What we know:
alpha+beta; Archaeosine Trna-guanine Transglycosylase, Chain: A, domain 4; Methane Monooxygenase Hydroxylase, Chain G, domain 1; 5-stranded mixed beta barrel; 6 helices; 50% helix
Amino acid sequence: MRLPLLPLRDIIVFPHMVVPLFVGRQKSIKALEEAVASKKLVFLATQRDAKVNDPTAEDMYRVGTIGNVVQLLRLPDGTVKVLVEGKRRGRVVRHLEQADCFWVEVEEIDETCDRVTELEALVRSINAAFENYVRLNKKIPPEMIMSVAAIDDPARLADTIIAHLGIKLEDKQTLLETFDPAERLEKVLSYMRSEIEILEVERRIRNRVKKQMEKTQKEYYLNEQMRRSRKNSAKRTNSRTRFRNWKRKSARRRCRPRGGTK
Length: 262
């Protein structure tokens, strides 16, 4: 299969993912134009180093995703916003050199698995772990639990969950290159459990900090109340003292003998 190639920076598109991308390099824009004009698919491969502006074959991973260009929008600044949908895994057989854009010969990758019973057990474990993960991770909407639970294809289930994991790009590429669904589910489960442990530690730290802040605020409030109480008490004492002094002075003035009239 001969396809135009779109090199990606800092992102990996998995099958079944729909992702918006902003494209500015002329070769990449030309590759998208070729895909749209001929109604062909596009091959999505990630660069090993995102800083490379003009990547060669050695600068890109050979395993990527065959994707479909859903929508393409030209922006005023000359860049392009494109919506791509990942379809299936593919591997570059060879790069076809052309001056205006990247072209590659790609072979599709088979993702079958015969470990049916093991897959069923893994799917149950994955769904239970993902539910716990979503409860701890506030960045994922709760309705994703039901969406993921409704996926009956193990390969698609693994790829869907990967998109929500906060793991490194290299780890995601490793998962993209794991073709056996059972093995991929095992790795996803391992990554997710590690993420859950980190999230639980973060939650304990937040709770501890919150309790400390509440304790500090409570102590400040009590100290402020005591300070005001002492201040009010001092005011009342001063008022009583002034009143007693006034009474004594008044009593002395009344007791003082008045002079007679001549």
